[in-house]
Amino acid sequence: MYPHHQQAIERLIRHFENDTNFQALIIGGSIAKGWAREDSDIDFMLVATDEEFARRQANNAMTFFSLDFCDYPGGYVDGKIIDVPFLREVAECGSEPARAAFGGAFIAYSRLPEVADLLARIPVYQDGEQHRKLESFYAQVLAMQWYVGEAEKRHDPYLMTHVVAQLVLFGGRMILAHNRVLYPYHKWFMNELRRAPEKPDNLMELMETLLAHPCKAHADQFCDTILKFTEWPTPSEGWPARFMQDSEWNWRSGHTPLADS
User: Fold this and answer.
1) Are residues 205 and 256 in contact, defined by beta-carbon separation less than 8 angstroms?
2) Residues 96-123, mean pLDDT to the nearest whole number
3) Is the pLDDT of residue 256 over 90?
């Protein structure tokens, strides 16, 4: 965090801490994670009372954006309005991106002792989900590898672009899950992969080559490297059946799409 970020946060505190509608202010984003640039914005979450949250939800007023708190070029504050039940729900059953959003998050002010405990519980990899997710990611990698061949045969640039991105996503998620690292969604995905301690030495190079020059040869090289990295758990029903359940029939269960889970 740069000094001008801290000054902006102090302005946010002065603006909200005496407002009884907002019981806590949580700082997140790149500043909380230690990845901020000089021009990074301030991401935050305001914990509203039940009444204020209900009022804002009814009016679709769940965000806060302003240029007034930052005095540096490109600076702004970008906030979300949440409530304590939301924090409890994320701690109990949040998706990986939902949990990762609280990575490094810290309390700027709080009148609620429970918030600190919830913040400690949220950004934690859920070991109980690891095995099934690895099986599903494995199935996705094999499915996308097959689709790359189809895209190349059909000279279909749309299909190629889509499935190569999916192949990189699910191959990378296998590595993050292997390391018990939360998937942070797309913006910070590559950053977390670079930081992952256990991965193929040439993983990032293979990903960049595949994304820049999508073709079956590069996809096969990427898949071969991922699949031989360790003994992965595989779905007992076979990858086509698992892919069908996770991607083609997921609407039947109402579960979060695998890519976002």
Assistant:
1) no
2) 98
3) no
